[in-house]
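Example 3.2
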Amino acid sequence: MKETPKLNLSKSLAMYEEALGLVPGGVLGARKPTDFINGEYPIFLESGKGCRLTDVDGNEFIDFLCGYGPVILGYRESEVDEAVYSQIRDKGFCFTLTQKFQNLLAKKLKELVPSSEMSIFLKTGSDATSAAIRIARAHTGKLKVMRCGYHGWHDWCVEMKGGIPKKFFEDVYEFQYNNLTQLEELMSTHGSDTAAIIMTPFGHPNHQKMQEPLPGFLESVKALAHKYGAVLVYDEIRTGFRVSMGGAQKYYGVTPDLTVLGKAIANGYPISVVTGKKEIMMAAASKLFISSTFFPNSESFVAALKTIEILERDKVLENIWEKGKGFMNGIQALIDKHDVGAELSGIPPMFYITFKADDTGAYKAKRTDFYTELIRKGFFFTPFHHGYISYRHTQKDLDLTLKAIDESLAFIKDKYK
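Structure, written as tokens:
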């Protein structure tokens, strides 16, 4: 099978060269060219609509990154955007004091999320996870934290330690998802000083296969946290309002003490939440300080309320699960057909195609070739992050994607005979 022709990325690359003189590294964080495949992916995007993106060179893609997760409905979702426009035009959105939408959204979360009794609202996932840890420490009077998963870029949890004094993270200990023994050993040593266990209830470790909880894992972690008087925090930034309306905690039937939410709650507008038991959340009222000029801005609250309304009214998550099941079945059939070392993991709303590691390192080349073929064909995945299904992915979109995956795996099979 022939290699798919390379995309024209001339404008993107020119803008990147300009950016290198204006922004450190040109682009920061997970959007760096090296976090994709250098020279194959666009670096600057122009527009999005539904499940499609267009880059500055005019290349169009069916997108499965969904803005790294916030876009649950689709890009430029008119009903959400119109609600925001109306608020900005008719009332304004940035004021000295709080607006009514705080109470409306907090009440809605109490209806939907099992752990929710009280809430505070912030802007980013890193804001929310860091606030949750601060609340847990203030409530318990303890210091240490056990963590499992990616929790943002702040000093206590970021993987790259440049610029961070060791004392800011020396009391944070990492354990692996589904490894209860590892956590038990950590807690046997540090449990009496542990303020919080923070984890993703569904396993989505960076650059690795996704994992559902083994039978009894979530229940055992909760029991262990409470045995030592620690606060159990679920990081549902990715899973909240995507796995179910009540998050992975409702789907798996295990309720934490605190939950952090973000991403899909507002279809791309910046808002995050710490929500949980009243007795723990009340530490934020008197024992600590959490504040920002922009936390109370109403446009994101309005977007969240409208997004939740649409998710409930149109049974969006049921639609995503149904489409996603068929799509994952189709991917698995293609993986079985071509047998090149590809693996599929995840659940219908969130999935990942990886390649089995081997002694020769050929899996890395296969991974690069596979995702290069997909982006050249007009399908936006990344080798280093899982994909998402949005409401605006149609069956035709998914069928076209399966055809591209079939061709890409066939190309790998031919190349690595």
